[in-house]
Amino acid sequence: MDLGLSGRRALVCAASRGLGKACALALAAEGCEVLIIARRPDILAHAADDIRQQTGAKVETVAADVTTPEGRARILAAMPDPHILVTNAGGPPPGDFHDWDRDTWIRALDANMLAPIELIKATIDSMMVRRWGRIVNITSGAVKAPIDVLGLSNGARSGLTGFVAGLARASIRHGVTINNLLPGPFDTDRLAQVLAAQAAKDGIAVEEAARRRAGANPSGRFGDPAEFGAFCAFLCSDQAGYMTGQNILLDGGAYPGVF
């Protein structure tokens, strides 16, 4: 299937590794010109080289903190009018809500709610003028099935979800879709962090926590980031132009509900 993405410009946040990199790689493989963002220039440069070698695509980088106005200004100077925006940020640390003060909550909101909204605000108008645009927010399966040690993420990402629900119904008339991808347990550094926290809470080894978590999933395994990237590319395709405002779980069947 030709996804109709050749020649499109894609801005992908937190793309030096994990799910963000998987999305950037999949979009590059479909012919997009990709700008990848992360804070650490060394890891970012390595990721860009890897994507170029695998796809032959044009890949640019900006090492910046997307949660700051200065960082977003540098990012948007490099690609002010993308066809595709993939927002993403590392999740806030797990823990006990008794230990989180106001500053901790503000950091979580800045990273996982307010920064994506600011990037959407800065790019959606040009997409609507062009009458074609795709915005994909990488959130978390915890939006639908909260995880007790991820309260900061549960709250901040749910705020973004509520905001998107209204905007997505207004922008699609202008050819711009906005959807959220909700990953379950994928084999990433973030999962390793969550498993370490869970192991500490339960007083078990990290390996045992991983075995239990994978075994409890209906698939019996963790997701491959490449699977996630492929689905992101489809959401950005011409064929996905009638889908907007959706929260799409990629979790191996872990969520037990019907709706």
TrEMBL record:
Sequence similarity: Belongs to the short-chain dehydrogenases/reductases (SDR) family.
Protein's name according to its UniProt entry: 3-oxoacyl-ACP reductase
Record SUPFAM superfamilies: NAD(P)-binding Rossmann-fold domains
UniProt xrefs under Pfam families: adh_short_C2
PANTHER family: 3-OXOACYL-(ACYL-CARRIER-PROTEIN) REDUCTASE, NADPH-DEPENDENT REDUCTASE BACG
